[in-house]
Amino acid sequence: MSEKEPEVSLVRFPLKEGKLDRFFEWMKYLNRPENREEILEGIREERIFAESVFLSNENGIYYVYYYMNTGDFAPGNDLVFSGTRPIDVQHFKFFGECIDMENHIKLKALFSVDAMEQ
User: Fold this and answer.
1) Helix 36-45 to helix 86-98 angle, to the nearest 10 degrees?
2) Sorted alphabetically, which InterPro entries does this protein's record hold (predicted)?
3) pTM above 0.85, yes or no
4) CATH assignment at residue 48
């Protein structure tokens, strides 16, 4: 069985109106040192090599940008959606509460290089 080529993407999601404080609360939670190991465990299982979150204010509308560098996402995706890890449950709750999932834009990298490549 061959391994899927890594996919590098950037997804832009509108932040729901009035949810800026909640967004920062969630980012603060994710950045706590005591949550780091659970997050790393999750992204390893999900075959995510790197993930970053950005916030942009564009003409008065806030957008959340997710950068992801992933391997074969499908097997790990099943684990995330099973909702067994507490941080995943909270992440989906946050997304439902704060992120406009219907109006996202996904950009796929046309060129990407990683210094960790062998």
Assistant:
1) 90
2) DUF6176
3) no
4) 3.30.70.100
